Amino acid sequence: VLLFAFALIAQAQNWTSVTTGLSGNIWGIDYADANNIWICDGSGVALSTNGGLTWIPAGNAGDGAYSVAAISANTAIVALGPSSGDGKILRTTDGGTTWNQVYTAAGAWFNLVDNISSTDLWAQSDPINGVFHIVKSTDGGVTWVLASNLPTQPTNVVGILGSYYRIGNTCWFGTQGTTLANRVYKSTNGPDGPWTFGTTTDQSVNCVAFSSVFGVGLA
After folding, report:
1. Phi, psi of 130 (to 5 degrees)
2. Quick one: pLDDT band at residue 32, thresholds 50, 70, 90?
3. Which end of the chain has fewer beta carbons closer than 10 Å to its terminal beta carbon, N or C?
4. DSSP-derived 3-state class of residue 9
5. Is residue 187 predicted with pLDDT exceeding 90?
6. Sign of the alpha-carbon dihedral angle for 69, 102, 2, 164
7. How far apart are CA 33 and CA 121, in angstroms?
8. Binning pLDDT at 50, 70 and 90, where does residue 1 land?
């Protein structure tokens, strides 16, 4: 049984282990609000409706369910980076009882899905045919379309699972690979870009965070 560490807001210095019911490593977590939280472990999904104190099984979204975007206690989106086959995006509206496939792309491997608002979301996949595959939804994840101004792929460079950050409509994501893999891509126009990039001194940007849109960044 995997134990999930949860910090009480009123006592941030104290951490308590709670049982999630998931058997794998927790890769994705997202808050819909202070009470409703979704997590995923690469296949299974769980939901808490009391701020993380207890967890409810929320179904099996499938192989590669590494990233989740929480909309409400009933609705969430999961992006798949499967070990084989096509990358997919799934959606539930009944607390995880059923998961419906809402998008698929041959050759995709999704590193993230993120909700800018309750209606606007974006998801980023490893490149397909030399172009990073970024899609967006404007109807709460019901339908998805390819974003505009997609960044091209340097040789042997892909995205990294969970390596992204967003403040408002400004989005960043990191990369990894064997050459030119020290890039952090940035768009100030949400998923539609255009995407620019900055470079770090070392390869493989496993996580990024920023103090503000034009402030200090850490990678």
Report:
1. 85, 10
2. very high
3. N
4. helix
5. yes
6. negative
7. 16
8. very low
**Two tokens, residue 1:** 């049984």
Strands (E), the chain: 3-7, 15-19, 28-31, 37-40, 42-48, 56-70, 76-80, 87-92, 100-105, 110-115, 121-128, 131-137, 145-146, 157-167, 170-177, 183-187, 196-199, 209-210, 217-218
User: SS3 sequence, 18-31?
Assistant: EECCCCCCCCEEEE
Which residues are within 8 A (CB) of 45 and not within 5 positions of it... i.e. 6 or more apart?
Answer: 38, 39, 57, 58, 59, 60, 61, 65, 68, 76, 78, 92, 96
Q: What pTM was estimated for this model as a whole? A: 0.92
Cα three-residue angle 187-189-195, rounded to 5 degrees: 30
pLDDT of amino acid 10: 53
- The CA distance from 181 to 167, in Å, is 23
Query: Which residues touch 117 (CB under 8 Å, ≥6 apart)?
Result: none
| pLDDT band at 126; cut points 50, 70, 90 | very high
The residue whose two tokens read 């998008």 is: 103
